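The data are set out underneath:

___
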Amino acid sequence: MEAFLVSTGIVALAEMGDKTQLLSLVLAARFRKPWPIVLGIFVATVINHGLAGAVGAWVNAWVGPDVMRWILGVSFIAMAIWMLIPDKLDDEDVDNQSRWGVFGTTVMAFFLAEMGDKTQIATVMLAAQYNAYLWVVLGTTLGMMLANAPVVWLGDKLVKKVPIRMVHIVSAGIFLVLGVLALLSKDVPALA
């Protein structure tokens, strides 16, 4: 259960101000059909994070505990630094996809936008750390939905009221703490 809760919280925070949250806003403004957009976000996230979680589980199975400790520690600290760098949304993320309808456009745009994104990398690291594939993927998917679905329904009213810079600083702090804990831990599974 800890893997689920930590995964949900980390991804929900990491998503604040992320390019996929901006993408949610753009899709909502462009199509004005919230349900197909939210469903598209969900489908793209399940597929993307399912694959990322599988990579994390594979890493956990094939890398020894000492190497895993260093990979996780350095990765979480790198993620803390990355959280402080603002994201930008390319117009191509939406424009090239519109021929597939609202749902198809959302699935394709979200899946592609998540490739190599902070939350995808976080999903890999969390699945490797907790060795709880299903709980991590469910948690990261819920975190994505908690961060993005309200943006689709409430649009820029919500985004303007949330202090994105502060959320990024808090997220960076959480990743930094996780990185330090991983580096100081003698046994990585003890973090779970």
Remarks:
- Residues 1-184 form one domain.
